[in-house]
Design a protein that fits this description.
Blueprint (H helix, E strand, L loop, with lengths): L7 E4 L5 H12 L3 E10 L20 E6 L13 E3 H7 L6 E7 L2 H4 L4 E3 L1 E3 L8 E2 L2 E5 L6 E5 L8 E11 L5 E10 L5 H12 L7 E9 L2 E4 L13 H8 L13 E2 L7 E6 L6 E8 L2 E5 L9
Helix pairs in contact: 1-4
Bound molecules: zinc ion.
Length: 300
């Protein structure tokens, strides 16, 4: 297991939801032809199409950046393994609901794969509920193979890195984002982040949440099943193997997706700007936790 004893914590700026609504409405209009941002009651996430193990995204919202790309390259550090139940305690929120983006533990799964975590962590007298998905490249046909994690494994572990949002899983007020017909070159996630960067240049903010691509298709990637045999040293090699990585010490943006049609992985952007339609729910986090930060600063 990895060292979680040196966690760093920072308080984040939490704008008023109504202020945030107006900021995001204006910012997203630069990237989408039709935008409607509202403050709404979080829809019941236990229902279709979410089927999450909790009702909402509210209650003590926080984000964490666990481990990092330096544990993947130049040489994979397979002992870097984390337990969602331990992470929730490290986030001072035992029993939290956790979603986000990560990698599986290769020790448990037997290969490298993308993880789409959806975990209600254990609490007094209540076992954890793991609704996560993972996806790998199917050796039979080279296509994406998405599976329900709990169909094969009974733990709540992950490996190497995780960019996670945690909360109490309660109902409450959230920001609803409806955006369609992409006119700019930013993904919905990048458009949200850049909007915040421009509006709050001297503040640290983080949004966590979930979105649905109601219409259109997305470009995703899946890490190869096998870790690279040769140590990866130049940035070019890293990029060609992983295809995408952010060299910052804090990963500023990371989104994983799953679907009802058997595909999932790391989300970049939709490939159908004309027809794409997004519906998302987001909450500004109150705290940021940096857990098991790699000593090697990521390259950029
Ligand atoms: Zn990813």
């Amino acid at each position: 297991m990895a060292d979680v004893s040196k966690t760093e914590k920072a308080k984040l700026h939490v704008p008023d939801l109504e202020e945030l609504r107006a900021v995001l409405q204006t910012g997203l209009e630069d990237n989408f032809a039709e935008v409607k941002v509202s403050v709404v009651e979080c829809p019941d996430l236990t229902k279709e199409p979410f089927n999450f193990p909790v009702k909402g995204l509210c209650g003590s919202p926080r984000v964490t950046d666990v481990g990092g790309v330096p544990y993947l390259v130049p040489v994979v550090q397979k002992h870097k393994e984390y337990d969602m139940n331990a992470i929730s305690k490290e986030l001072e929120l035992p029993g939290a609901f956790i979603l986000g983006a990560g990698a599986v533990s290769s020790r448990i799964v037997g290969m490298n794969a993308e993880l789409m975590p959806l975990v209600l962590t254990e609490a007094d007298g209540r076992p954890a509920v793991n609704s996560s998905y993972f996806s790998s490249i199917n050796p039979v046909d080279g296509q994406c193979l998405q599976e329900r994690y709990s169909h094969k494994f009974s733990d709540c572990n992950f490996g190497l890195l995780g960019n996670l949002y945690a909360c109490e899983g309660r109902p409450g007020k959230v920001i609803e984002v409806r955006a369609q017909k992409r006119t700019g070159d930013r993904s919905i996630v990048t458009a949200l982040r850049k909007t915040l960067e421009v509006q709050y240049p001297d503040r640290s903010l983080a949004l966590g949440g979930t979105f649905i691509i109601q219409r259109g298709k997305a470009k995703i990637h899946i890490m190869p099943r096998e870790f690279s045999v040769c140590p990866l040293n130049s940035d070019e090699e890293v990029n060609s193997w992983l295809k995408h990585f952010e060299g910052l010490d804090l990963r500023v943006e990371h989104t994983h997706c799953f679907s009802r049609h058997g595909e999932g992985g790391h989300y970049y952007i939709d490939t159908t700007p004309e027809s794409v339609q997004y519906l998302g729910y987001f909450v500004p986090a109150e705290f940021m936790y940096r857990i098991d930060r790699p000593e090697a600063v990521g390259r950029d």
